[in-house]
Amino acid sequence: METTEQEKPKSKRGGPRPGSGRPRKEFARALTVRLSHEADAALACYEGNATEFINAAIVERARAMGIVK
Fold first, then answer.
1. Range of the domain at 58
2. pTM of the predicted model as reported, rounded to 2 decimal places
3. Residue 10 domain-assigned?
4. What is the mean predicted confidence (pLDDT) over 39-67?
5. I need a labelling partner for 51 at 20 to 30 A (CA). Which of 2, 3, 27, 66 fits?
6. 8-48 tens-digit pLDDT
7. Which residues contact 35 (CB under 8 A, 6 or more apart)?
8. Count of the separate structural domains present in the chain
9. Is residue 47 assigned to a domain?
């Protein structure tokens, strides 16, 4: 007797699994920027999280300029 595709038991190998992977962030926007040599050197000296540093610097500068409160 021949088995068809519908009769074959489904394999549990591979594919996505619930709960696997990186958790989603509340809001994140990917952005590509070009840094000056001076900005690159400053960022290279920073030993923490570069993303958090850049975010904080942008917000601080925007507040100083009166763009955001």
1. 33-69
2. 0.60
3. no
4. 95
5. 66
6. 777 778 777 888 888 887 888 889 999 999 999 999 999 99
7. 43
8. 1
9. yes
